[in-house]
Every structure is written in C-alpha cells, then in structure tokens.
Amino acid sequence: MDDNYDVLKSLTGYTLSSQQKDAFQFYEDALCDWNEKINLTAIRDRRDIRIKHFLDSLTCLSALGEIRGLKLIDIGTGAGFPGLPIRICEPEVMVTLADSVGKKLEFCRLIIEKLHLTNTTTIHARAEDLGQSVDHREKYDRATARAVASMPILVEFLLPILKVGGKAVIQKGVNGPAETHAAENAIRILGGELELIIPVKLPGVPDDRFLITIRKVASTPKVYPRRAGMPTSKPLL
C-alpha cells in the first residue's frame, strides 16, 4: 500500500488504521481480478483505483455528519462506491448497497463476506421500485450516489427513500453546480432543499469534483418516484 491515503486526513479528518489499509488492499486486488472477467469499472490502474474510487468515495465522510447509528443507502453502487469504502472506515454505519445489475452486487457480497463487514447488505432493485416500497420509502438517514444520472433524475431516485430530516450526498463532476441549480425546482417538488455544494480536490486529478448535499425537509408526494424509466425519459423540470 502506497501513501495515496495520507491525504485523507486533510480532506476529511480521517486517518486509516493498518487494518483498514489491509481491507482496501484486498478490495483493490479483488476489483482488479474481477475486472478481468466482467467490466466492473473502466478504471484499472491501481493508483487510479485508490484515488478515483477509494479516496474519492471517502470524501463523502466529510458530508455525512453524525455517524453513529446512521442508516445509509448507496443507490447505483456498482462495485460498491461510495458505500463500501464508507463502511470500511465507519463500522457503526448501517449500509445498504442497491443496484439493478446482479453481477455487480455479487462482487459487493464477496467483499462484504471476506472482510466480515457487519451491518452491510445488498439489494437487487431499481431505485424507482425502492422508492415506492414500504420497506424502503422514507426509511434512510443518508442516501449516496456517484455517476448514476443527471441531477433531476437522481433526486427523484434519492429523496423518496430518505426520512424527513435525512440528507442526500451526491458526487458530481465539473457540471455538478450547474446541474444542481437546474434541478432546484425538482428538489423542491420532492421535498428537498439544497444544503451545500462542496468542491473536492483529489491528488493528481485536474478535473473539478463536487459533493452536493440536499436536505429532506418535507415528505415526498406519493406519486414520486414515478414508475421505472419515467424519471429518465421525462425528468422533472
């Protein structure tokens, strides 16, 4: 393990233990191995995996707030980002990893099993279906997402599953602020309120990155999220 994580403290205030670094090393090795069989991620260089996947995911820690007892759902988790890195660092967070692609969740379950990650589950479902499920609607304190969809679509995925008072933490690239401001009406309709747009600078990565935090201030109207495919084909304006 190299020193790529040393910058973590300056970004989030966290310092990884040797056990946590070992966990990320296993995660990295497994990701590289599985990428030979299925396309989990386009990023295959090991240093880039550590910075653009692991470290990038861990920047969310600075926006989560009080950790103890949080119920967090990671929508469109793919190979576990940002949910699994958050869970490796914070054992007291109850993490649900949600994705519509079963093979990706199979990989996540391998990491959960091999690293003995308690309080960590997976669910194979579309976000629209979760938002209308009595088991998931307005049940979570935090919802995370990264590179899943444009902001008007994403807020329709995330806000219905958050409790009132909960918060969405969304990772976005250079267009994040513009997307967010364009989605302000959709955010309001869904019961949300823009909280913060936080710039993030990763070592050796010139592209601008942002954490967008949206607070759930009112219950989402029951008609949202709309049926599967509708948020994507007809985003809220």
- Name the poorly predicted regions: none
Q: What is the topology, as strand order, of the major beta sheet?
A: 3-2-1-4-5-7-6
Secondary structure class reads alpha/beta
Number of discrete helical segments = 11
How many strands? Answer: 7
Q: Going by CATH, what is the homologous superfamily? A: Vaccinia Virus protein VP39
Features:
237 residues, alpha/beta, Rossmann fold, 7-stranded mixed beta sheet, 7 strands, 38% helix
Short description:
This protein is an alpha/beta fold.
3D architecture notes:
There is one protein chain. By secondary structure, the chain is α/β, with parallel strands linked by helices. It has a single domain, classed as Vaccinia Virus protein VP39 (Rossmann fold), CATH 3.40.50. It has eleven helices and seven strands. The chain has a seven-stranded mixed beta sheet, sandwiched between helices. The N and C termini lie far apart (46 Å). 42% of the residues are buried.
